[in-house]
Design goal:
The protein is mainly α and 210 residues long. The protein has two domains: 22-68, no CATH class; 72-210, Up-down Bundle (AhpD-like). It has helices spanning 24-34, 44-48, 52-67, 73-87, 90-102, 107-114, 124-139, 144-179. α4 (73-87) packs antiparallel against α5 and α7 (124-139) crosses α8 (144-179).
């Protein structure tokens, strides 16, 4: 038999626990998230709350990787935007575009990534993060050269943090995409801007040293 094409529907594929209908454990975790650094429950945590312990640990891991590493926010957000672009994750991209701009990442870099073009990376540390992140996403590993560059600048701790950051936001993107978790009604899409989500991964151009 010939394989059939996968059927991909629009709209969410999963229910989201309603505040009034939450179990006591879900309510405890929900309150902890909205009263913490995040301030709201959005994105993948809406689905993860079906397993409150998973949602709680997920939230704590995300807070560590987003707010409490030695990588500057500008650097972290560059890696997150690349991850969102490769996985075609609208919600991840749109929310983190705002965070990237607030962290000082230049708009021409952001727009180039959105358009799948080679961004104008003027700083060597940006080029190192770009190369490391894309190799990890496209190859499932990182070359000795790319690894050594990040290691030399950020040390072993920073290298571990960057790897975990890309892995974490890949998990976020996969959760958002698989369950079709929508953007909040108050936020307009920016990555695909209403166009259908493409099938598979999006390839970004690799850096070529002169």
């Amino acid at each position: 038999m010939m394989p059939t094409e996968p059927q991909i529907t629009s709209g969410p594929r999963i229910s989201f626990p309603d505040k009034d209908g939450m179990t006591p454990e879900q309510k405890r975790v929900f309150d902890g998230i909205v009263n913490g650094r995040r301030g709201e429950l959005v994105g993948p945590l809406r689905a993860a709350l079906h397993n409150p312990e998973l949602a709680e640990r997920w939230s704590k891991l995300g807070e560590i990787l987003r707010y409490y590493t030695q990588l500057p926010p500008r650097i972290s957000e560059l890696a997150v935007l690349l991850t969102a672009r490769v996985w075609n994750s609208e919600l991840e991209w749109t929310i983190h575009r705002t965070a990237a701009e607030a962290a000082g990442l230049e708009r021409d870099i952001i727009e180039a990534i959105r358009e799948c073009q080679l961004p104008p990376l003027q700083f060597e540390e940006d080029r190192e993060i770009y190369r490391f992140t894309l190799e990890m996403l496209s190859l499932g590993l990182v070359s000795d050269e790319a690894y050594a560059a990040v290691l030399a600048r950020w040390g072993e701790t920073g290298t571990v943090e960057l790897t975990a950051l890309v892995g974490y936001y890949s998990m976020v993107a996969l959760t958002l995409n698989t369950h079709r978790i929508p953007l909040p009604a108050t936020i307009a899409p920016d990555l695909l801007r209403g166009a259908p989500q493409p099938e598979g991964l999006t390839a970004m151009p690799q850096l070529v040293d002169a």
